[in-house]
C-alpha cells in the first residue's frame, strides 16, 4: 500500500530496475493483479491502479471517461518515472494504459513498453451500448465474459453492489473517441484470445497503426479473459520484454 489512493503496491521493491503499472478491466480492481505482483517481485516493481468506486474506494464517485482517468493516473505516475515504466492493461485497462502512454510521451517520458491485452485498437469502433442496459443485462454480460470471480457471480447481493462501477466503466469504454495526435514511439505488444468476442484479429493487428515503435502480437487460446488461463506465459513475456532475466517467484 502507499499513501496514494490510486496506487497499490502489494510487494514493494525499492531496488528493482523497472516498474510495471497494471490497469484493471471494466468492473475490476487493483487486486486482480495481486498474483502478477507476487510472481514478478522482486525482479520488477509491480504497481496496480485502483480506480475510484470499488473496494476501499467504494464511497468515491466513479470516473466515466477514459480521457479523465488517463489524465489523473498519468499525473499520479509522474513521481514514479525515476525508473523505466512499462504499462499493462486488460480490456478497458488497455485503453487507459494507451492514453496514459500518450500523456507520458507528451511529457517527455516514454514507457518502456505498452502491453495491450484483450482490447481492439483505439481507432477501431463498435456501436456498443451495454452501459445503458438494465442491471440484469449487465449481470448477464459479466457472466458471459467470465471475468468476474465465480464467488461474486454467485452472490446476487455483491453483484448488485459492484454494478455502479461496472456501468460507469462500460460508459467510459463505449463513449471513448480516439483523438488524432502523434503516434506512440514506444514498443506495443498486444495479447489477444483467439476466441474473444470483443476483439477480432484485424482489430488486434490494428494496434500497429498507433506506434512508430516495434509491434508484436501474441495470440493465445481462449476468450475475452484468456489471460487468466495463460497468466504464466504472459508474465514471462513481460519479464523478457522488460529485459529482466531473473527467475519468476514460485
From TrEMBL:
Keyword tags: Hydrolase
Pfam family, one: Thioesterase
Transmembrane portions of the chain: none
Protein's GO biological process: lipid biosynthetic process
SMART domains reported in the protein's UniProt record: PKS_TE
Gene Ontology MF, one: hydrolase activity
Domain Thioesterase TesA-like, first and last residues per copy: 21-242
Entries under InterPro entries matching the protein: AB_hydrolase_fold, TEII, TesA-like, Thioesterase
Similarity remark: Belongs to the thioesterase family.
Protein name per Swiss-Prot or TrEMBL: Surfactin synthase thioesterase subunit
Amino acid at each position: 500500500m502507499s499513501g496514494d489512493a490510486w496506487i497499490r503496491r502489494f510487494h514493494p521493491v525499492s531496488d528493482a530496475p523497472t516498474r510495471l503499472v497494471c490497469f484493471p478491466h471494466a468492473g475490476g480492481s487493483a487486486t486482480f493483479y495481486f498474483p502478477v505482483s507476487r510472481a514478478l517481485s522482486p525482479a520488477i516493481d509491480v504497481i496496480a491502479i485502483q480506480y475510484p468506486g470499488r473496494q476501499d474506494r467504494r464511497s468515491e464517485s466513479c470516473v466515466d471517461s477514459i480521457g479523465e482517468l488517463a489524465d489523473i493516473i498519468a499525473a499520479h505516475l509522474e513521481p514514479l518515472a525515476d525508473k523505466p515504466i512499462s504499462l499493462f492493461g486488460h480490456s478497458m485497462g488497455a485503453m487507459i494504459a494507451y492514453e496514459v502512454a500518450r500523456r507520458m510521451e507528451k511529457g517527455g517520458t516514454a514507457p518502456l513498453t505498452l502491453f495491450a491485452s484483450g482490447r481492439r485498437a483505439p481507432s477501431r469502433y463498435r456501436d456498443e451500448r451495454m452501459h445503458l442496459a438494465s442491471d440484469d443485462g449487465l449481470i448477464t454480460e459479466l457472466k458471459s465474459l467470465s471475468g468476474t470471480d465465480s464467488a461474486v457471480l454467485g452472490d446476487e447481493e455483491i453483484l448488485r453492489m459492484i454494478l455502479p462501477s461496472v456501468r460507469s466503466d462500460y460508459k467510459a469504454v463505449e463513449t471513448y473517441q480516439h483523438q488524432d495526435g502523434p503516434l506512440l514511439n514506444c514498443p506495443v505488444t498486444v495479447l489477444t484470445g483467439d476466441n474473444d468476442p470483443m476483439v477480432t484479429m484485424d482489430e488486434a493487428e490494428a494496434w500497429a497503426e498507433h506506434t512508430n515503435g516495434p509491434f508484436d502480437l501474441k495470440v493465445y487460446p481462449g476468450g475475452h479473459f484468456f489471460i487468466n488461463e495463460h497468466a504464466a506465459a504472459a508474465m514471462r513475456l513481460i519479464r523478457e520484454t522488460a529485459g529482466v532475466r531473473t527467475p519468476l517467484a514460485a
